[in-house]
Design a protein that fits this description.
The complex is a heterodimer.
Chain A lengths: L3 H12 L1 H39 L4 E9 L2 H6 L4 E7 L1 E7 L7 E8 L11 E5 L9 E5 H6 L7 E6 L2 E12 L19 E7 H7 L5 E9 L5 H12 L8 E2 L4 H42 L1 H10 L3 H41 L11 H28 L2 H5 L11 H8 L4 H12 L1 H39 L4 E9 L1 H8 L4 E16 L2 E10 L23 E4 H7 L6 E6 L6 E10 L7 E2 L2 H8 L5 E8 L4 H9 L4 E6 H55 L4 H38 L12 H23 L7 H6 L4
Parallel strand pairs in A: 4-9, 6-8, 14-18, 15-17
Antiparallel strand pairs in A: 1-10, 1-11, 2-10, 3-4, 3-7, 5-8, 6-9, 7-8, 12-19, 12-20, 13-14, 13-16, 13-19, 15-18, 16-17
Helix pairs in contact in A: 1-9, 2-7, 2-9, 2-10, 2-19, 7-10, 7-14, 7-19, 7-20, 9-10, 12-13, 13-20, 14-19, 14-20, 14-21, 19-20, 19-21, 20-21
Chain B lengths: L15 E12 L2 E13 L4 E5 L6 H8 L7 E6 L2 E2 L5 H11 E4 L11 H9 L8 H7 L15 H13 L5 E5 L7 H17 L3 E6 L2 H4 L4 E6 L2 E7 L12
Parallel strand pairs in B: 3-8, 3-9, 6-7, 7-8
Antiparallel strand pairs in B: 1-2, 1-4, 4-5, 9-10
Helix pairs in contact in B: 3-4, 3-5, 4-5, 5-6
Classes of the chains: A alpha+beta, B alpha/beta.
């Protein structure tokens, strides 16, 4: 049987259902974001780990110019190595029917007999290539989908200078290409880049590498020391142009996925706590008000013999009931948002299966946090209910006494109307609650601002990367470094206006005990097509001597301008050169290094050939230039700047706008929750006064202004606080979202402060307007008879 | 005190004129007849006292003539303005410009000083007197900067009177104005009301349980069961100080 006290609780909850709902929405947002990010995080990690284990994702990777296949056995014999598999990886250009844009692929060899155990391909459709069938390939699923290819489709590929007809026999996935990105690109573009798996013998023949390989994948045993294995691998492969073994953390696909996971983790650490804090505040003020109005009842209950524990528990149950409701709401929202976010991930990350599953402990933790935050908020109220002496409680509380203080004098000095005085004195009379309202609105604004400014960050990044640093229309990558004549050949193509050669050499940079794998890039002196932009947007010149490091790389190496770093060339001659860091450039993508061609020549100890070329073309001749490039055997790939830009913008539109929609909704939920509760409490406290004003001849609108005015003042006070909080929160989030791959710029636009403030203010004013409508229902007659509550 | 008839403006016969005023409250299944076809006429400058037991309809009538409530049936005019046809907005205008209310429990705003409580009304009235002047009229000029919590009950009620008269209302409606006061302070409040009536020519309607107060008025309307049971005109009015409490 429901006890009378519980019945009272239920009715009370129902009576203030609007307020209960407003708190529950904020608390539910905390639960939802927690379940969402934690759920997606766990799902991704579990899926990834299962996939890695099932398909034998390697622990170490190494590439070399060319090595005999037998070297694999020497590598496998290194202590700690469980398995080593040699493969051929070859970039190629594809010709797809009805496509004039350049399409590239990485062709990877697989053992025809199915003996490949590392980075094993999972077939989604069709079969693996058969021994003896030269042109058979398996293609990756995203590429197949984007280009409408399926088993049976044929295409032509320019592999190692030879045009070859290929037949698609299967569609598959592999754990080393969960995130497949073309070299030099920022984001996946499945239409223009794909992975092809070809039988080993067929690829050996196509690339003139009979019984030779150019890459090895290694699986290490438990307890193997990676650094030791890497040293030995590098030693063995030195004569073969080994470019240095690296672990998963430097593996592109793994690193991108890791980066995404880190962002989810960051989101989880920043956003739910904001909501939990606001919920705690809301429970505190709402329960505080309930206990003040139920003072007499509490006295009566105590007089009847209810113990302090029973009364405390009664009010705590109020908070817990709200929390339970919010938790259920949050679970539902979190699970459904998690599903759609997982779907979004499935578009960028190629998993054979990506199920959104949430383990019980995520639910338990989310529920626990929700209950804890509500309980914390309830403590103050519960303590005051317990502390009430029955005799005191049953007599009405002493009337609020106002006296002339600073606020009053300020208002009088400013010549406020009597109504204006009522507003500011009430704020000053309840400083704690006013502060909570201001804090809540400020947090909502801060959260909104810190998410909205990611759009500014993306725009800055886009502007810096695509418009200011990259001025070429096309980037042409050669199959292997070429000399000046290749550049001249490009310059002769009709429509090509300018050609600049560039070169990148793989190196390991070291300073103290810090080592980073990177590449040093060089462009022609006086280059017009490649620029380096610093933080203030100024172009900075390539130093004549020494290195220019991106901020990211400098931070990783813990060096600054003037320090010296050791540069070890990977592949070919393994020279070690000590070079000064001449300058640092503020770049947002990757950890990169730059040097003049002379410096690069010194490190590489050869005359600098060009690995790729930057082209400026006549837009009208684009098609023709692309067709000509396609037919040049020396050309490995062509990247169009505009296509990359478009793809990047698409990604921003798709992801950031979805995120933004969620965050505007979330931030508004906080603003609405805080303002609704503050306004309802304000209304109930001032009901008597407001009715009196109506009797005195104030119109509904004028009386409503007392509510709107007080909240508006608090919103105005909250805006600067919120902007400061947002600035701070945005910096924290920017730092947390930055990884080895991306460094988000912190460059909020001033207008963003305005937009965020506007959205929060509108949400607040709309909410208080809803409460102000109650002015129309005020009972003026009751007020004439009643002693003030 | 004088026995003169209320003066009033020339050409205007009545301040309030009501016919067949009926008020029925529905609470659940039951109907409560608070007013039953009351006819009413109050002339300018008149002081009228409404007497009667609780629930007899006097407060309902006061609320209706004050524009706080509407009759279920019947018609009511304030001078040539038909109150029974006004919407909420115009009733608010009516209260704002014409009516001064005084309540048993003062209903002052605790966060405003005495002067500011008066300014609450002078801020919105068409032709108000200065808030200080109104406080001066009730003898509280020196307490202008005090908050309600710093004033005695009688002082608070006088602030309420000052607030009511500051707009120079056509009519003062007082619901048990002395109900919460002791005799001495009650008397001071009544004196103020009499001054407003005689010096400003304000029509005053007072609800009270105190028969003695009736002797101050030009007329006393006795209420019983929602009807005016008896109208008593005073040929000889007494002053507030002569009232027996």
């Amino acid at each position: 049987m429901v006890r009378a006290l519980d019945r009272k609780l239920l009715r009370e909850l129902w009576r203030i259902r609007g307020q209960v709902l407003a708190i529950a929405v904020v608390l539910a947002a905390a639960v939802a974001t927690f379940v969402l990010s934690m759920g997606v995080y766990r799902s991704l990690v579990e899926t990834r780990d299962a996939y890695y284990a099932r398909n034998g994702f390697a622990d170490l990777f190494v590439a070399m110019t060319r090595a005999p296949r037998s070297v694999t056995q020497r590598i496998a014999a290194i202590p700690g190595v469980e398995r080593a598999e040699g493969t051929i990886n070859q970039y190629s250009t594809l010709e797809l029917p009805r496509k004039d844009m350049p399409v590239r692929a990485l062709v990877s060899s697989v053992e025809e007999g199915g003996a490949t155990l590392l980075n094993h391909v999972t077939l989604r459709e069709g079969r693996m290539p058969r021994p003896g069938n030269a042109g058979e390939v398996v293609i990756d699923e995203a590429f197949a989908r984007a280009n409408l290819l399926r088993p049976g489709s044929t295409l032509y590929a320019l592999i190692y200078g030879t045009r070859q007809r290929l037949v698609v026999v299967g569609v598959g996935l592999s754990p080393d290409h969960i995130y497949s990105i073309a070299p030099g690109d920022l984001i996946p573009d499945s239409e223009r880049f794909g992975i092809l798996w070809m039988g080993r013998r067929a690829l050996e023949a196509a690339t003139d590498r009979t019984e030779a390989i150019n890459a090895i994948a290694l699986k290490l045993g438990r307890g193997a020391v990676h650094a030791d294995v890497i040293r030995q691998v590098d030693h063995i492969l030195e004569p073969y142009g080994g470019t240095g073994a690296y672990g998963r953390e430097d593996h592109m696909s793994h690193a991108f996925l890791d980066n995404e996971l880190a962002q989810l983790d960051a989101m989880n650490r920043v956003i739910p706590p904001v909501f939990l804090l606001v919920s705690t505040f809301l429970v505190y003020i709402v329960l505080g008000r309930i206990i003040r109005t139920e003072r007499t009842q509490i006295g009566l209950l105590k007089a009847f013999g209810y113990t302090n524990r029973e009364i405390g528990w009664h009010y705590l149950k109020f908070a817990l009931a709200v929390a339970v409701f919010a938790t259920i709401l949050g679970y539902a929202a979190g699970v459904s948002m998690g599903r759609s976010m997982t779907r979004l991930y499935a578009e960028y990350f190629q998993f054979p299966f990506l199920r959104y599953t949430i383990s019980a402990d995520v639910f338990v933790t989310a529920g626990g946090l929700s209950l804890a935050s509500a309980t914390l908020g309830a403590l103050g109220g519960v303590r005051s209910a317990i502390g009430l002496a029955p005799a005191v409680a049953m007599s009405p509380p002493s009337p609020p006494s106002y006296r002339t203080g600073a606020t009053e004098r300020l208002g009088q000095w400013a010549g406020f109307s009597a109504v204006g005085q009522m507003i500011i004195r009430h704020i000053a009379r309840w400083p704690g609650r006013s502060a909570i309202t201001v804090t809540g609105i400020a947090l909502s604004l801060g959260l909104l601002f810190s998410t909205m400014q990611f759009m500014d960050a993306s725009r800055t990044m886009l502007d810096s990367f695509f418009f200011r640093a990259q001025r070429q229309d096309l980037t042409v990558t050669f199959i292997e470094p070429r000399n000046q004549s290749a550049l001249l050949e490009l310059a002769q193509i009709p429509g090509v206006l300018r050609v600049e050669g560039t070169r990148a050499i793989p190196v390991v940079m070291a300073s103290g005990n810090r080592r980073e794998r990177t590449a040093i890039e060089s462009t022609e002196p006086g280059s017009l097509l490649a620029a380096h932009i610093d933080r203030s947007g100024e172009e900075i010149a390539m130093p004549a001597a020494g290195l220019m490091l991106s901020r990211q790389l400098a931070d990783q190496l813990e060096v600054g301008a003037g320090n010296e770093v050791y540069v070890e060339l990977l592949g070919g001659k393994r020279t070690i050169t000590a070079l000064p860091v001449a300058s640092i450039v503020e770049e947002f993508v990757g950890a990169r290094a730059y040097a003049s061609p002379d410096t690069v020549e010194r490190i590489a100890a050869d005359a600098a050939p060009a690995g790729s070329a930057l082209l400026q073309i006549d837009p009208a001749a684009r098609r023709n230039v692309l067709i000509q490039l396609k037919d040049m055997p020396a050309v490995l790939s062509v990247t169009e700047r505009d296509a990359a830009l478009l793809k990047f913008q698409e990604m921003i539109d798709e992801n950031i706008f979805t995120m933004l929609f969620f965050y505007i909704a979330f931030a508004s939920a906080i603003a609405v929750g805080v303002v609704y509760n503050s306004a309802r409490i304000l209304f109930s406290e001032r009901e008597h006064e407001l009715a009196t004003l109506r009797v005195l001849g104030y119109h509904r609108r004028e009386v409503g202004m007392i509510l709107v005015g007080e909240i508006a003042l608090l919103v105005i006070a909250a805006i600067p606080v919120g902007c400061v909080a947002g600035y701070w929160l945005a910096q924290v989030m920017t730092a947390m979202f930055s990884s080895d791959l991306f460094r988000l710029p912190f460059a909020p636009n001033r207008a963003t402060y305005g937009y965020a403030s506007l959205i929060v203010s509108l949400a607040a004013i709309a909410t208080v307007a809803i409460v102000a409508r109650r002015v129309g229902q005020l009972d003026m007659i009751a007020v004439l008879k009643a002693r003030e509550a | 005190m004088s026995d003169e008839k209320p003066s009033g403006e020339p050409g205007v016969e009545f301040v309030f004129r009501g016919t067949g005023l009926t008020k029925v409250y529905r609470s659940g299944e039951t109907e409560v007849h608070a007013l039953r076809e009351v006819d009413l006429a109050i002339v300018p400058g008149e002081m009228v006292v409404l007497l009667g037991p609780s629930g007899s309809g006097k407060s309902t009538l006061l609320n209706i003539i004050g524009g706080l409530d509407r009759p279920t049936d019947g018609q009511l005019w304030y001078r040539d303005l038909e109150l029974t046809r006004l919407d909420d907005r115009h009733l608010t205008e009516f209260r704002r410009d014409r009516v001064g209310f005084i309540f048993q429990f003062y209903n002052l705003i605790p966060s405003l000083t005495a002067e500011e409580n008066v300014r609450l009304v002078t801020d919105i009235a068409k032709d108000p007197m200065d808030a200080r002047e109104a406080l001066d009229m009730v003898g509280l000029a020196d307490r202008a900067q005090h908050y309600p919590a710093q004033l005695s009950g009688g002082e608070q009620q006088r602030v309420a009177v000052a607030r009511a008269i500051a707009k120079r209302p056509g009519v003062l409606l007082c619901d048990e104005p002395t109900g919460a006061l002791d005799s001495r302070t009650g008397m001071r409040v009544l004196e103020t009301l009499c001054r407003a009536n005689s010096e400003l020519g304000t029509t005053v309607v007072i609800i009270t349980h105190n028969r003695g107060i009736g002797k101050m008025a030009h007329r006393v309307l006795h209420f019983l069961d929602g009807r005016i049971a008896e109208v008593e005109a005073n040929d000889q009015r007494i002053s507030a100080s002569e009232i027996q409490w």
